[in-house]
Amino acid sequence: MKKLIAGNWKAYVNTERDADELFSLANSASSSAFDLVLCPPFPYLEEAEKRAKQFAVGAQNISSEKEGAHTGEVTAGVLKDLGVKYAIIGHSERRAEGETDEMVREKMTLALEAGLSPILCVGEHLETRKKGLNAAKDFIQEQLEKDLYKLQTINYKLIIAYEPIWAIGTGVSDKPEDTIVIINFIKEFLKTNGYKREARVLYGGSVNSKNILDFLSHEEIDGALIGRASTNPKEFTAIINAIA
Ligand code: 13P
């Protein structure tokens, strides 16, 4: 299975010029070695779609409403209409803003109905992880049970990103051997709970050009969801070169 590299720009890229530079760098990537997805802020999605040659485009979030009187929301339908293929759902930074598992589940449903590929983010807090990997597994299992409730019938390859919250933006990444334990647990959960199609499970949290191969050299880790480092042109180039 090809590795999937997704860049979550968050709010790090704030000018068209900077966005354009990253689109150009992504287009120079060797497309055969891995799948590349860029997730810019909403206003840059249309330009991203126009520029996308060696990468696919993803949104960082979608509305939990299908349509209607919801000021400021961006629906799955709008994204599909723009040609967007992926959507990050349930990122811990959105959950910290009050997004519940019920909303995440609704977003998953709407994304799948619209034909978007959701990248569902799960991961535990530091205080949970301090109790050990089994506590982290319990936390993640509860998220998966709620976020994917009765979505077994989807005829879609799921993409799950394991992003331990304590590793996001801290410079402290997980140990790959621990990541593998959690990723295997997620894959086993999906298998034993009736998700028929094989899922890709990514790792995210302080991935950069120096440590990316520590993760991607393991066959269990199907890719990476990268925040800050994917928005720094030098780092982004080094990441692409490392995996190509
Ligand atoms: P960082 O790579 O900046 O730690 O962010 C990870 C992340 O949250 C990607 O969604």
What does it look like?
It is built from 10 helices and 8 strands. It has helices spanning 16-27, 45-51, 76-82, 92-95, 101-114, 126-129, 133-147, 176-192, 212-216, 233-243, and strands at 3-8, 34-39, 56-59, 86-89, 117-122, 159-162, 200-204, 223-226. Strands 1-2-3-4-5-6-7-8 form an 8-stranded parallel β-barrel, surrounded by 4 helices. Helix 2 (45-51) links the parallel strand 2 (34-39) and strand 3. It is globular and about 45 Å long. Bound molecules: 1,3-dihydroxyacetonephosphate. Residues 8, 91, 163, 168-169, 204-207, 225-229 line the site of 1,3-dihydroxyacetonephosphate. The site of 1,3-dihydroxyacetonephosphate (13P) has 14 residues, from strand 8.
Write a concise keyword list for the protein shown above.
10 helices
Could you say which structural class the secondary elements and strand pairing correspond to?
Answer: alpha/beta
Q: Give the overall silhouette.
A: globular
Number of strands: 8
Distance between the termini: 15 Å
The order of strands across the largest sheet is 1-2-3-4-5-6-7-8
Give the mean pLDDT: 96
Topology (elements, then pairings):
Blueprint: E1 3-8, H1 16-27, E2 34-39, H2 45-51, E3 56-59, H3 76-82, E4 86-89, H4 92-95, H5 101-114, E5 117-122, H6 126-129, H7 133-147, E6 159-162, H8 176-192, E7 200-204, H9 212-216, E8 223-226, H10 233-243
Parallel strand pairs: 1-2, 1-8, 2-3, 3-4, 4-5, 5-6, 6-7, 7-8
The chain binds 1,3-dihydroxyacetonephosphate.
Structure summary:
With 244 residues, the protein is α/β, with parallel strands linked by helices.
